[in-house]
Amino acid sequence: MLGLLDENAPREEIRHVAGKTMKAAFLTMIISFLLGTYIFQFFGISPAGLRIFGGSILFIMGLNMVQGHGKKVNHNEKDQKAAEKRDDISVVPLAIPVMVGAGMLTTIINMSIAATTWMDYVSGIVAIIIVSIAALIILQRMPFIKKALGDNGLKVFNRIMGLVVGSLAAQMFLKGVFTLYYNFSV
Question: Least packed by Cβ within 10 Å: which of 24, 99, 169, 184?
Fold first, then answer.
């Protein structure tokens, strides 16, 4: 977010952009969670195929994080320049695709696929609410967090999170592979 906003942006502007970004991201995540399974069924894409592809995407992201490579941004140079010219960057490119990109959508749709009871759906929605609130707080306090952790602290945190993302990716990928194996071997 700080890369798309002026480094000296006033606190109120940061809070406004963070709030609007998370509203758009929250709506995107909820819609994806509630309708994602049906959209993939409509196109004939199996949950196992999504898990394999999504696990691959997350694995690449996690590997880049662990190796200390800079974030491979979900927006291109054209989006960056447009964001700098535009007054409002909250929805595009911050909410979509930076906050809710391919990795997040894959994870949410996998949660949707795994949901079989109403309690699963309630749990998924509660998880999305908690993640959205946490992300809002983090975005609103990003300048302070960046200053408190410093460059080295951010690098260490990024690498630790890379281990988490990579582990999640491996589980997602393997679940997809074993599901396909068992579906075709029987």
Answer: 184
Give the integer Cα–Cα distance in Å for 79 and 149.
28
For residue 85, the enclosing domain spans 11-181
| 8 A C-beta contact, residue 36 and residue 104 | no
For 43-117, where are the alpha helices, taking DSSP H only? 47-66, 77-85, 102-114
Tracing tokens 């998924």 back to the chain, one arrives at 124
Is position 73 within any domain?
yes
Pick the closest to residue 139 from 11, 7, 6, 14 (CA basis).
Answer: 14
What is the DSSP code (8-state) at residue 116?
-
Residue 125 DSSP SS3:
helix
Q: How far apart are CA 177 and CA 47, in angstroms?
A: 11
Residue 4 lies in a domain: no
pLDDT digits (tens, 9 = 90+) for 25-83: 999 999 999 998 898 889 998 989 999 999 999 999 999 999 998 655 555 677 666 65
Q: What pTM did the predictor assign? A: 0.80
